Amino acid sequence: MSFNLANKPLAERAALEDEKSRLYELWQSNLGKAKADAARLFGERAKRKGKWSQWVRSELDDMSPPEYANMVRSEVNRLMAAK
Fold first, then answer.
1. Quick one: DSSP state of residue 44?
2. What is the tens place of the pLDDT at every residue in 40-49?
3. pLDDT-based confidence at 1, cuts 50/70/90?
4. Residue 69: CB atoms within 10 Å
5. CB atoms near residue 56 (< 10 Å)
């Protein structure tokens, strides 16, 4: 299986490029909000102690769209790695 876009049909390449553009726009317009949500979730860590991870998973599961939840998850992981 080749991952070279040049080997894909034109319609498939166009669909992949459209999806890439959509995700970039979502990322660009929501990065600040995702960082704020991640900081809010991370800020609850001391208060929730052992139940924090479970609570964060629940909060992330409730976020929509899934791509946004992944952005917040990445930011939470970044904050945890920096601690």
1. T
2. 999 999 999 9
3. low
4. 17
5. 20
